[in-house]
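Sorry, explain these tokens?

___
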Amino acid sequence: MNREASVLFDVPGPRARRRNVIIGVVGSLALAAFLVFVIMRFEDTGQFESAKWDPFQYTGVQQFIFDGLKATLKAFALAAVFSIVLGAFLAAGRLSDHKIVRWASTTFVTFFRAMPLLVLIFMLYLVPGSQGWWKWDPMWPLVVGLTIYNGTVQAENIRAGILAVPKGQSEAAYALGMRKTQVMTMILVPQGIRTMLPTIISQVVVTLKDTSLGFLITYPELLAAAKLIGGYQDYHMPFIPVTIIVGTIYVAMCMILSAFATWLERRLRTSRKGKPIAVEPPRPAALSLDGARV
């Protein structure tokens, strides 16, 4: 390997490569030993006994998990859509020509990005009821908290995508007589979302995983269902089996969402390219009797 081939780091020499191999092997062996130790401990405490897997054969337990999955997907769908919409508005506000709008949007984004999501959810859940304002379903504090927090993150993603759009796009739109609102909503925001689509989808996956915080405010989502099933004395407290099943469901949902993002990005890239325009080749010029081209 040419030592000048890398501009980010120095290419390791023979001793450094040997040391890296040794560190990798030792680290892999240590990780494997730790996994074996954990599995043996689970085996000694009877976590892999068939009796702990028997409850999942019952229709009631299956329905309980399915209901938790539906509650998770419901909160996720609402929070994902609302956060993207909020992020688009906040990104437009941060790029506004009006100083008050820009200042308000920047303050909102900065404040709620710095606030821990769990604190925000608890505040939305406890404060309205304790002050006697209103009492709402536990789903809404979760959805609103996820919307506000992830909306501020999406705002920065979309803003970065808008700033990445070539200036010629907006200059051409202004030359056609379009107003700033039209340029933002019809040209810059759609292209910014397309540019930052992988980052936006990554944050949507984070939103899906953050729905698990709902069990802390008694929202009956998937993790809350797993906690209740794992704590049943009649089922011999199957913590490990329910963790494996629920963890597999979470991983499967995230993989499906990532696959959808890949498909959508490929489709949008293809639609931007479009079909080539068929151009008829020029006909050869004919010669008249006097030699002139016609």
Observations:
- The CA atoms of residues 93 and 102 lie 5 Å apart.
- The mean pLDDT is 81.
- Residues 59-94 form the longest helix (36 residues).
